[in-house]
Amino acid sequence: MLKILVRLYLVIIVAYAGALLFIPDSIVGLFQERFMAYNLDQAKGVQSLIVRQFHQAPREQWPAVEQDLASAFAPLEVKLLRMDQAELSADEQARLEQGQYAVRIAEWGYYETVLAPLDPQWLVRLHAPPDPLDINLLSWGVTVLIGAAMLGCLLLWVWPHWRDLERLKETARRLGQGQMAERTHISPHSNIGELAGVFDTMASDLERHVNQQRELLNAVSHELRTPLTRLDFGLVLLFDEVPPASRKRLLELVGHVRELDELVLELLSYSRLYNADHARERVEVSLLELVDSVLGGFAEELDGRGIQWEVRAEGNLPRFVLDPRLTARAVQNLVRNAMRYCDESLLLRLRLEDDGACLLTVEDDGIGIPVEERERIFQPFYRLDRSRDRNTGGFGLGLAISRRSIEGQGGTLTVAQSALGGAQFRIRLPAG
Ligand code: ADP
């Protein structure tokens, strides 16, 4: 927005300077005759007094009269000239020969020089020298102040538009982040009130559609759980009744059913994260303890697979107010992924940022994530091609759940390249 204002100001300043430069000259050029006549009228009185002074003295004393008048009229210059010394234009020559005055017009249409004939050979020239520097500065100061006043008025006019457009932008950003209840609250009387109204209606429609989809997902997931549990139970009961040759097949079927059940559970927790009534907990916890307890849950697997892991935390970490369940869920998913994709080591770091926020990173030495995929992996059900064979397990919901858990608390979850060679996931939780 600031860019638009700066551009607008630049355009206006250039246009104003251009107008000052060209418009007065063009107007004077267009109405040359009228300006000439006006200036001749203006100069007539003074000029006839000067001419009378010369005519009252004999010609030999004209230089003395010239000196007298020059000192009386200073800083205006009075000069006695021969006709051929005065560099007259044809027009001026003709006027002077007819005994008339001639004027030369300067900037803004005011006369700068007046020529009056004394006799067929001599004329007297009254010339206004350029304004002194301070007067020049003052008159430019007036012009600049008028321009500044115009820009100030423009700012007063632009300000409410700017504020409303900023609000529109912020609302669009929050909607994009999934805060579907966000509205612009811009007055209908604003100049962009109509646009804001359409935007808010669109936001309401979007919210309704998204809610319908979530409710559907939630309902379907709930409905699926009961038959899946029955299926699992029924298959297990069948185990003793089927011939031993078919038991392996039966166990595979049980595995598939449990995988489906897991998916449904993940779906339920994902859609619950979006539930508006979902009350977030706010508890003061030590992040180091929280990370330790998450890692504790994976200790057996980590040791079993010989993965080297380390937690590096700054010594002076304060306690943080956050939702421990959601944060632990996010960290669990990141650690589980790091374990799946690492070669042999993973590292967790806890650091306090300058603004009081806490940065928690989970990184590994695995294959990492290509730059162009780094935003997409946070979309639900998005899995990178190389893991589609499902060797690594998972449904592509883990990172979506993690991001939602962190953003729901006002934080961010992003991914970058780790110095270890693999992916580095960064959770940033704001202070307070
Ligand atoms: P899944 O449960 O299938 O792993 P996620 O949402 O947790 O789903 O992850 C999405 C995709 O991101 C995964 O399919 C995987 O390709 C990629 N990914 C996640 N974590 C890592 C990691 N630490 N290293 C490399 N790739 C990763």
List the helices and strands and how they pair.
Elements: H1 2-30, H2 32-55, H3 62-73, E1 77-82, H4 90-97, E2 102-105, E3 111-117, E4 122-127, H5 133-176, H6 193-238, H7 244-273, E5 283-285, H8 287-304, E6 308-313, E7 320-322, H9 324-341, E8 345-352, E9 358-364, H10 398-407, E10 412-417, E11 423-429
Parallel strand pairs: 6-8
Antiparallel strand pairs: 1-4, 2-3, 3-4, 5-7, 8-9, 9-11, 10-11
Helix pairs in contact: 1-5, 6-7, 7-10, 8-9, 9-10
Bound molecules: adenosine-5'-diphosphate.
Adenosine-5'-diphosphate is lined by residues 333, 337-338, 341, 364, 366-369, 377, 382-384, 387, 394-400, 422-423.
Outline of this structure?
This protein has 432 residues and is of the alpha+beta class.
Helical fraction equals 55-70%
- As residue ranges, the low-confidence spans are none
**How many structural domains can be distinguished in the coordinates?**
3
pLDDT average, as an integer? 89
Shape: rod-shaped
CATH architecture of the largest domain: 2-Layer Sandwich
